[in-house]
Design brief:
By secondary structure, the protein is of the alpha/beta class. About 45% of the residues lie in helices and about 20% in strands. It is built from 21 helices and 20 strands. Strands 12-13-15-16-17-18-19-20 form an 8-stranded mixed β-barrel, surrounded by 5 helices. Strands 3-2-1-6-5-4 form a 6-stranded antiparallel beta sheet. Strands 8-9-7-10-11 form a 5-stranded mixed beta sheet, sandwiched between helices. It comes from Sphingomonas cynarae.
């Protein structure tokens, strides 16, 4: 049975309810006071604050009710919680759905309920009133019930400390920023403002300070920064602590963007000059222009934080919100979120295979497995877009495993059909932290009855140099297991020749950037390629050239002694069936040419 969107929403709603720890708690006068007010406004004997649990309606507060809960099934409050909309039932006996409900059978004739909704839009339950006679609810009564329900939610937030003041910085939190911005928009709608987010340090800098000096030093940095920010803004303009090492505040009304940026740059330069951690952190500042009342508080803060991240890549570490950059960041996040589902979907990911050609014979002796993603809404997503994103996250491990499993299963299928093809698979720097990677590869080969030399592992120079000691140890283990190793994108990394000599790799793949414009025996590209091929041969490597797009480039590489090549001149990446057919056609063409000769 598939897990529906409705099921997911209900689980998220229940999680929001359970986090508040309200269910089965003692009565509270603060809630009872609101419940009594609802009863008095409607002139009805029964009222309750009803919370919608998985299978029951539990009453946090009740007037005129002896029991603490009723079954959720056919309870009107459950409908209010799931729809987050007010509900009025003027007469249970004439309502086809609720006439035979628990309340209907108990003699209830009238119901009015207003939803209890969290800040994130999750319905917890309802503030409801009930009567034993049919009646209508006037607009004034219903408006009062909605206001009282909002008071219940305010009380819930107050009692359960959604966090209005950060205990370390002493500044109001993100929740308070949200509420204050709503109030400001109500008082001054249409007024242009700038939201400012100050990001004190990169995550790795915070981690380094904590590792070297302890968490208390990080807390002191936060306190020091909050004091400096309060002093700079003055008492009339509040600052907010909105992230682990992030602060936010609003500009005065009517400021000019460029001038305010200069003012901020000068002000924070002065603050930084006296900072006790100025040499080990980099402050980044993001500005988000907006109009009060037109943009939600969450979007204002998110946009300013996005601009702060953009600021880390430019001079001066201060940036104005860019809608285009923001769209790109949101797309990246959406792709990252959706890729996890794609791994489980079974019909979105696939491998295509690009042939590797032996230049002296023209035979296809292997293929590189390339991951492809057909997104259900976006269509084909370029691997150049999604792979760099997932390599930086915990998805790197399951993605590599998916590719390994799919490639080895395809190898096994070809092997059983008598096709002797080797397949290369790329791994990333993130995979070097996996202690069981080699064991998983060996187990995969063993389960499928594959020879280890049929699988080649490709990794870039940059990936190796990210964790050189760890990489070297793992590569030696892979080589000892009989698995061929290839250095991808050769010539674009920063490894030294001394380090390359220590690698147990058999193959280097010259990056397509050096091959794309290769023509004749003149020009810098020819000299570079000739030098790299000669150097690789002297170090004992077999050479593969990537990105061959012309017959001339293939001929030049053959003369230079390059053993293998791949590129569009030979074939584009193909799915398994077309790939096999391509090999068959190529072999037949070769046989015809041989007979003709």
């Amino acid at each position: 049975m598939s897990y529906s969107v409705c099921d997911h929403r209900e689980e998220v709603r229940l999680d929001a309810l359970y986090q508040l720890s309200l269910l089965d708690t003692s009565p509270s006068e603060s809630f009872d006071r609101i419940t009594r007010m609802a009863s008095q406004i409607f002139g009805l004997p029964v009222a309750a604050v009803s919370l919608t649990d998985r299978d029951r309606q539990w009453f946090k507060s009740r007037v005129g009710i002896d029991h603490w809960s009723i079954p959720r099934d056919t309870a009107p409050c459950a409908q209010v919680a799931t729809t987050t909309q007010p509900l009025v039932i003027e007469d249970f006996q004439t309502d086809p759905y609720y006439a035979d409900s628990v309340l209907g059978r108990a003699g209830t004739r009238f119901y009015a309920g207003a939803p209890l909704v969290t800040r994130d839009g999750h319905g917890l339950g309802a503030l409801c009133v009930l009567g034993m006679e049919p009646r209508r609810a006037s607009p004034a009564e219903l408006a009062a019930l909605v206001d009282l329900a909002a008071m219940v939610m305010a009380q819930i937030e107050l009692q359960h400390a959604f966090g209005r003041i950060d205990p370390v910085s002493g500044l109001p939190t993100r929740s308070q920023f949200h509420d204050d911005l709503i109030d400001l928009a109500r008082d001054r709608p249409g007024e242009p403002r700038l939201a400012v987010v100050v990001d004190l340090a990169r995550d790795d800098q915070i981690s380094r300070i904590a590792r070297a000096m302890g968490g208390a030093r990080v807390d002191e940095m936060i306190r020091e920064s909050s004091r400096a920010l309060r002093n700079a803004l003055g008492s009339a303009r509040p600052a907010y602590h909105v992230g682990a090492a992030q602060f936010a505040f609003l500009s005065p009304p009517g400021v000019e963007h460029a001038a305010y940026q200069q003012e901020l740059r000068a002000g924070f330069a002065a603050i930084r000059a006296s900072s006790s951690v100025r040499f080990v952190t980099n402050v980044a500042i993001g500005l988000r222009p907006f109009t009060l009342g037109d943009v939600s508080a969450d979007d204002v803060l998110r946009g300013a934080a996005s601009a702060a991240q953009d600021a880390r890549s430019i001079d001066g570490a201060i940036a104005l919100y860019s809608p285009s950059n923001d769209i790109a960041h949101r797309r990246q996040y959406a792709l990252l979120r959706d890729f996890g589902a794609a791994l489980d979907a079974g019909d979105q990911l696939r491998l295509e295979y690009q042939p590797r050609i032996e230049l002296t014979t023209g035979r296809c002796i292997g293929a590189e497995a390339l991951l492809r993603w057909r997104h259900p809404r976006l269509g084909e997503v370029s691997p150049g877009e999604f792979i760099p994103i997932i390599e930086q996250t915990s998805l790197a491990r399951p993605t590599t495993q998916w590719v390994l499993d799919a490639a080895m299963s395809q190898l096994a299928d070809w092997s059983h059909k008598g096709r002797d093809i080797a397949v290369s698979v790329n791994i990333s720097a993130a995979n070097f932290s996996e202690d069981d990677l080699i064991e998983r590869i060996q187990l995969g080969l063993l389960k499928r009855g594959l020879r280890s030399d049929r699988l080649e592992i490709e990794l870039t120079e940059s990936a190796i140099m990210a964790q050189p000691d760890r990489a070297l140890a793992m590569l030696h283990e892979l080589a000892a297991a009989g698995i061929c190793l290839a250095i991808d994108d050769f010539g674009t990394g920063h490894s030294s020749l001394a380090y390359l000599q220590r690698l147990p790799a058999r193959v280097v793949k010259i990056d397509q950037a050096f091959i794309r414009n290769l023509t004749g025996a003149a020009g810098p590209d020819f000299v570079l390629v000739e030098t790299m091929i000669g150097l690789a041969h002297k170090l004992g490597f077999r050479v593969v050239a990537e990105g061959i797009e012309t017959a001339e480039a293939a001929a030049v590489l053959t003369r230079l002694g390059c053993e293998e090549a791949q590129g569009f001149w030979f074939a584009r990446p193909m799915e398994p069936a077309p790939f096999v057919q391509w090999i068959t056609d190529r072999q037949q063409q070769g046989q015809l040419s041989s007979r003709a000769a």
